[in-house]
Each structure stands twice: as C-alpha cells, then as structure tokens.
Design brief:
Elements lengths: L11 H9 L7 E2 L5 H11 L11 E6 L2 H7 L8 H5 L3 E8 L6 H4 L6 H4 L3 H25 L3 E5 L4 H8 L5 E12 L13 H4 L4
Antiparallel strand pairs: 1-5, 2-3, 3-5, 4-5
Helix pairs in contact: 1-7, 2-7
Amino acid sequence: MLDDRTVSTVDGRGLGLLFEDARTHSQWRDGDVDEATLRRLHDLVKMAPTSANCQPARFVFVKSKAAKEKLAPCLMEGNLDKTMTAPVTVIVCHDMRFHDRLPELFPHADAKSWFEGNDAFIEETAFRNSSLQGAYLIMAARALGLDCGPMSGFDKAKVDAAFLDGTTWRSNFLVNLGYGDASKLFPRAPRPAFEDVCQVV
C-alpha cells in the first residue's frame, strides 16, 4: 500500500507525445536540429537507468554533408533516402571498454573487476545497456519535440570502419532525428493484445 506521498504521473498529452500518438518517421520537413538540442538530448538520456550505472552507450551524431556521404555506402537501399534527408542520424554505439569508467560511475563497489578478462560479459552488458540507452534516446527526443526513425538496415562492419576505426566503440543501431512529415505516414500498424504477449504469474 502506498504511503501518503504524491504519486506523479505523465498526463494524457505527455503519453500521447511519447507513445500513443508518436510514429516512426521516414520523411522529413525542413528544420535543423542544433547542437544545443543534441546536448540537451544527451543530458536526458544519461539520467535513465543502466546496470551498475555502466552507461556503455556512445552516440555519433551524423549531421554534416560530408559525414552523411560517408554513411551512405553503409546503408541498405531502403534506408538511403530517409537517412540522407534526415537532419541528424545517430549511430548508437557501445564502448567495449565502458568498465574503465566504473570507478567513477559506480564508486560503491569494485565493479570494474567484474568485467576485466570476461569478454562475453562485457559484450552482453554493453549491448544490452546501449540498446536500453538507444531506446531512452528515442523517448527523450520525442519529449523534446523531435521525431525519430530507428533502424537496423545497415552494414555494421562498414559503419564501424568508417566512423569508429581505432576506437573501442561498436555500432548497435541507427536513429534518424528531425521533424517528420506526418502527411507521408502509413496507417499505424497493428499492435499485439495483452493476452497474446503477456503473462501474470
């Protein structure tokens, strides 16, 4: 039973912005996404939970014409136009040496030692938590009035070679950001019912 503290909830407008009315966009209206907005976006993402506050996600904001041209050969054909016309494409990555920062990020325990020499655990933790952080990025972007087009149709090896060579970062998925053209949306696809995908045990 709850105590007498107030339980805060998001109102209907907020739920619509984040979930019920939000759509995946592939056509974009004119409108720049400036660096100040990208910084604010990261300020929100970093506050959301990751295991042991490991924060393994790294973000490459592909914005310039030259950077977009470098990204183009890495994309599947169906993702090319939507990405080239988006104001920003985020390469959501994970850092395979994220645990080097755990003494700073999780000072309550010797968490770095949990990972040293355990490559499988590093990969699993980095991939899972960067995926979470990429999802947080989508929700934070929507909260800031941006539309999103997440996708996985790209050549990971090419992206890593073009943008991450010489680093310990590895690409996970891409998210186009901008101001979507709602007139170009398809009708919303069906979603499964609770009874089809959930169990209460």
